[in-house]
Amino acid sequence: MIDSHCHLADAAFAADLEQIVQRAKDAGVERALVILEGGNADEAAQAARLEQLWPLVRFAIGVHPHQAHQFADQPDRATMVVREQIARTATARAVGEIGLDYHYDFSPRDVQQAVFRGQVRLARELSLPVVIHTREADEDTITVLREEGGGEVCGVLHCFTGGPSLAAAGLALGFFVSLAGIITFPKAEELRATARRVPLDRLLTETDSPFLAPVPHRGKRNEPAYVARVVETLADMHQIPPADLAARTAANFHTLFRP
After folding, report:
1. What strands lie across the sheet with 2-6, from one edge to the other?
2. What is the rounded distance in angstroms from the CA atom of residue 214 to the CA atom of residue 202?
3. How many degrees, rounded to 5, is the angle at CA 203 between CA 198 and CA 206?
């Protein structure tokens, strides 16, 4: 199994990082893609520690829409920060997570869009995939990916919670769709219905830990070991053995993010 999106460099894991990594390995998690906030020195330091504990981890680096306001005076500076950090991170495999969030609007929408556009252009230049966060901004997110990606940028719609139209638009752009613990929630039947329409060769699994722990861990701190519950749920939905679903999504991960 692979956790294609987690925040193990977050302070929430600082005190027991060794145990978290060991539980992931014991659960059969081969590796994880860890998201780093561009320019965050504390996360970069924890990432270095994490690499010593789990050499198979890989990283995505980007400026999240919640932090876009930090670059309001000069949106291109966000791109520069991410470019420089990727250049000095040998295990960086993607630009992300990046995108638009119109639910919280922690950053002005025009600033979010400018920072997002710059990072998609960077991914295109570096021939790297993107990890996309979109919330209540689906149309604008797809527009930016179409306009700035130019058909050359692939990636993943992470922690997918959208409907059939967003899934279809992402798939048409060559993107993968990643499901997290929400897929296990009793009231997530609409999401499960959409997920069933995503081809198996375009699915990824993730935890988005420390957030969104799956049933039966809901309400607790999430961690990579719990990706097993996502795998089990998707396997049940597709009526295939969990080992087959895990192998398929792991292969998809390696297709998108080179090992």
Report:
1. 2-6, 31-37, 58-62, 92-101, 130-135, 155-157, 176-179, 203-205
2. 21
3. 130
How far apart are alpha carbons 5 and 179 in whole angstroms? 10
Q: Encode pLDDT of 250-259 as tens digits.
A: 999 999 998 7
DSSP 141-161: HHHHHHHHHTTT--EEETT--
- Residue entry with tokens 């306001």: 69
First-to-last C-alpha distance (Å) of the chain: 14
Sign of CA dihedral 208, 212, 214, 218: positive
Give the model confidence (pLDDT) of 179-198 as tens digits: 999 999 999 999 999 999 99
Separation of alpha carbons 98 and 83, rounded Å = 14
Element (DSSP H or E) covering residue 164: helix 164-172
Query: Under CATH, to which class is 2-256 assigned?
Result: alpha beta
Domain boundaries, the chain: 2-256
The number of angstroms, rounded, from the C-alpha of 97 to the middle of its chain's C-alpha atoms is 6
Q: Which residues pair with 60 in a beta bridge?
A: 35, 94
Q: Is 6 within 8 Å of 209 (Cβ atoms)?
A: yes
User: In this predicted structure, what is the pLDDT of residue 259?
Assistant: 78
